[in-house]
Design a protein that fits this description.
This protein is α+β, with helices and mostly antiparallel strands. It has 2 domains: about 1-75, Alpha-Beta Plaits (2-Layer Sandwich); about 85-160 and about 170-210, no CATH class. About 40% of the residues lie in helices and about 10% in strands. The chain contains 8 helices and 6 strands, in the order E-E-H-E-E-H-E-E-H-H-H-H-H-H. It has helices at about 20-25, 55-60, 85-95, 110-120, 125-130, 140-150, 175-185, 190-210; strands spanning about 1-5, 5-10, 30-35, 40-45, 65-70, 75. The strands form 3 sheets. The protein has a two-stranded antiparallel sheet with strand order 1-6. It has a two-stranded antiparallel sheet with strand order 2-5. Helix 3 packs across helix 6 (about 140-150) and helix 4 crosses helix 6 (about 140-150). The chain is globular and about 55 Å long. The structure holds iron/sulfur cluster (2 copies). One iron/sulfur cluster (SF4) binds near residues 17 and 64.
Length: about 210
């Protein structure tokens, strides 16, 4: 469960529809949509927004301001109608313990990620919007999002023109030799396994960036 304190507000007079906010949003909460007057403008979906504030940081025009959120501040996955055994099975297939915190920033558990998949999440952005995972750094939890989607039989596909991952501390930049050295010293972090998964799903993204 996370508490969403703020919601982005877009100054349409400043916005030049570059869509950088849309690309960077981990929850697919901002998109270019038509309003009632049939005019295209960047629009925030409050139900999906997790208050990570990446859009505000990314906007080159300073068109986004985070305003206090008035309603629906708590975001939690409803576990009540789900079979706990099914949740456990999905976590086990993903190699995660149900009560394990999969995100060091939000303390979202593997159980919550599994519940999101059982409730219909089909993409990393869906898991993010339903649970609040990736609200902080977005680095270490992303691999767990990949794992849980794979365990649910889903191949995570990045949205077109979206970027799954944004951080200067990119695990893909760790030299192979160093990676194996760290993995040998701290096998509990499963670094080699995790980087292989990141490489699998981010390879395409990086090729597109090049
Ligand atoms: S990043 Fe800023 S200028 Fe670009 S589309 Fe989003 S709100 Fe508009
Ligand atoms: S989830 Fe983050 S990036 Fe997306 S709209 Fe909300 S604050 Fe902006």
């Amino acid at each position: 469960m996370i508490l969403r304190e703020y919601l982005p507000s877009i100054d349409q007079a400043l916005c030049r529809k570059c869509r950088k906010c849309e690309e960077i949003c981990p929850a697919a909460a901002i998109s270019l949509a038509r309003d009632k007057k049939d005019e295209k403008k960047m629009t925030v979906n409050p139900a999906r927004c997790i208050d990570c504030q990446r859009c505000m940081d990314a906007c080159p025009e300073n068109a986004i301001t985070m305003l206090p959120r008035e309603a629906d501040r708590a975001l939690r996955v409803d576990l009540s109608g789900l079979d706990p055994e099914e949740i456990k099975r999905l976590c086990r297939r993903a190699g995660l313990a149900p009560g394990e915190a999969v995100c060091a920033c939000s303390f979202i558990t593997a159980r919550e990620l599994a519940a999101a998949v059982l409730l219909g999440a089909k993409t990393p952005e869906d898991v993010c919007a339903m649970t609040g995972v990736r609200r902080g750094c977005g680095i270490y939890c992303l691999v767990n999002v990949f794992k849980i989607l794979e365990a649910g039989g889903i191949t995570p596909e990045g949205r077109r023109k979206s970027r799954l991952y944004h951080h200067p501390l990119d695990p893909l930049d760790i030299p192979e030799e160093r990676l194996r050295e760290i993995d040998a010293r701290f096998p509990q972090f499963r670094l080699v396994e995790d980087v292989a998964l990141i490489r699998k799903y981010r390879g395409r993204e990086r090729r597109e960036e090049a």
